[in-house]
Structure formats: structure tokens, C-alpha cells
Model the fold of this input.
Amino acid sequence: MKDVVHSVEEAFRRQEMGEASNFMRTRSRGAASVLNVMHANLPYLGRAGLKAYLSSRAGTRFALLLFDASDSSLLAVMGADIIGRFRTGAASGVAIRYLYGRRSSTLAIFGSGKQALTQVLAANEVISLEEVRVWSPTPEHRSAFAQKLKAYGFNSNAFDSPAAALKGAEVATSITSSRQPFLTDDMLDNVMHLNIAGGNVSDHAEVTPAGVGSFGTIVVDDMAQAKIEYGDLIQAAKNGSFAWESALELGTIVAGKRKPEGRTLFKSGGAALEDVAVASMIYDKATKSSRSYPTVDLV
Done:
């Protein structure tokens, strides 16, 4: 995970320096499916790429194409599901590093699905986690996830409500598929940094408008994409609790051009530059291996 966090951090820094370009996700809709495509060009790596994934009732399938930008050759075709889990976690980790700024904390995590583990692993890469407090709607799932985290060496416990999970936590991450907000300003009062990473649909939200508005600095991975897809912020802007003019992109913070003030919130929907940066790192590791079928350990 250390290499994943570094790759994502550097991608945001280079984007702000004008050495990487990111194009937001676009969607084409059919009668029973949605095709999503996003792409980025990273001259500092000499790589470019795109990720595409199709969602239907049968599930979602991912593919990533990685190109050599110097000679246009196709370097690799990769499955992008696992890459997506790791880069999403890494983006939250980078946000914690630059927006929270302290060395240790208790983490409250909301959600216990396939994206949750990498959120915890990335957070642990940038700060020392004293405890991980887990909540998700299904009791069996949150208990199983807390046990899974124990197997990774974390002091983890499951709780019956979001409010209970937040007790004593200065850092929190929400990675759920909730359509309706379940985190309120009162619940979040003692949270110094919050990651919202669960959705990229304009009518879905995990945090109430008042909850969003209670944070002093609000940061996103991609501004253009945020204004179309990030329901938590879109609903808060409509409500008057938040103004887009006050939001910052993560790259401006990472590059040192702006500093966060007060309590901080990072809303992530996933950016293609993250995918391409991580895929490039994996490709480099794999091609340097002497094994016929190399494996790359991301954890």
C-alpha cells in the first residue's frame, strides 16, 4: 500500500504542476447497462491510459489500457477492479496525510464491503491507527469486517450505530452505497477529518447538507466531476450549506499552494489519473520481475 499511496500522491502533485491531465468520467446508458469511461495522460511517467467498466444486472466488469506515451504502444491490459479499490483507499490516505496532519488517531469507518479494507490499510500507511471502529447496516457484515481487521493486526471493534462508532474518533471514512445521508452535523462534531468515498451519483449522499457545511475546508479529487456526480456536495450546495467557490482540489494542497483551515472534508469519486499512476507502478514492478508470471503485492 505504501507504493500505491505514493503513486497517487505524486499524481495529484504533478497534475497541479501541469505535468498530468485528467479527464472526468463519462457515461453512456443503455436499456439495462451503463458504460463508464475515464482517462488520463501522465507525461512525467511517459504513460497514458483509460479505464472502462460496464455495469448491468449481471454485475460490473472493469478493464484498464496502459499506453507508452512516447511511441503509442499498448503496454498492458489489466483488470481494474482491484486497482480501483487500492487507488480509492490511497486517495483517502493522501487526504488524511495533508488535511489531518497528525501522526495517530482512532478511525471510524462506515461500510464493510469490498472497498472498506483498502481504506483502512491506506489510513494506516499515513497515520498510526489506535483503534478502528466499524459500522455498517448489516450486523453480521460489520462484525465480520471487524474480525477481518483483527487478522491484519488492527485493534478493531464493531458498533451498532454510526454515532457509537464515532465516539473518540477524530478521523472518519464513509465508503457505503447509501442513497440517503446517515451522518449528521451533530454526529460529526468531534471529527477533525472526514473522507466521503462511497458514491459518485448526484442523488446519493452519505452526509447531510448541514454535516457537509460544518467543515471548514472541503476538498475534492476532480472539481469538474464533483459538480456533476458528488451528491453530498451537490445537495449541500442546493441547500446553501456549501458553496462550490470555497472548494479546493486535492492537488493544490499536495503541491503546497493552499493550506487547509479548520476541520477538513475530502470527497472522492475516483479520478483516472489515480488509476493510470497505480497501473504504471504495477507494470514497472511486474516487468522488472524475473518470474514468468510475476505477481505484485500491493498490501
About this structure: The chain has two domains: 2-83+273-288, 85-272.
